[in-house]
Amino acid sequence: MMEQKNKAGPLIIGLTGSIGMGKSTVGQMFADEDIPLFDADAAVHILQGPGGALVEDIEALFPGTTSKNGVDRQKLGPAVLGNPEALKKLEALIHPAVGAMRAEFLQQNERAPMVLFDIPLLFEKSGAQGVDQIIVVSASEEDQRNRVLQRPGMTADKFEKIKALQMPDAEKRKRADYVINTSLTLEETRKQVKNTIEKLKASLA
After folding, report:
1. One domain for residues 32 and 123
2. Dihedral sign, CA of 15, 16, 21, 24?
């Protein structure tokens, strides 16, 4: 669970969305508008990359899944996907480490009016309790499937397993304060981002 926001600090906005919905693209659009962005996935990549703080611990738990280049996701994925116990052990390593990086980010941006947390499993992992506003990035099922299946190493079976771990998109949209639809052009998506920022700023006034 994410730490509760300090009332004197910035407005904390949670950005989430299921796999293939365009969340990273939207997150970058917010960053382009000078909204400080904490990307949980990027933090995990740092922790699991070459010389990453979690590489040795992950190798100890899942032998043969790392190298001098850090964690090999193509090897780690099959070790945890569809194995709740293994996934729980991995998350017990990752979540505290990401939490520490997030706390440092908040401290660095304590004077910003608002900050954005890009959190893939915001609803699934109770992170929603630690944010003030929630933005869900959504797209049509067809666009989602097409995008995901274009990724290297992705299969229809793997996509379905990942999807099964995520809350249905329709349910996420119901719980959102704002929804950004990425089944549109990049220009139209950027307009939605700018419009959302204006509404968030107005809520702070």
Report:
1. yes
2. positive
Residue 122 per-residue DSSP state: T
pTM metric for this prediction:
0.82
Residue 7 confidence (pLDDT): 56
Is the same domain home to 154 and 73?
no
Residue 135 sits in the same domain as residue 200: yes
Residues of the chain with pLDDT under 50: 1-6
State how beta strands 133-138 and 178-181 pair: parallel
**How many helices and strands in the chain, by DSSP H and E?**
9, 7
Q: At what angle do helices 40-48 and 84-108 cross, to 10 degrees?
A: 110
Three-state DSSP class for residue 28:
helix
Neighbours of 189 (CB within 10 A): 20
Token pair for 89: 């052990």
Same domain assignment for residues 128 and 203: yes
Is the separation of the CB atoms in 40 and 117 below 8 Å? yes
Q: Are 22 and 181 in contact (CB under 8 A)?
A: no
- pLDDT tens per residue, range 151-160: 998 999 999 9
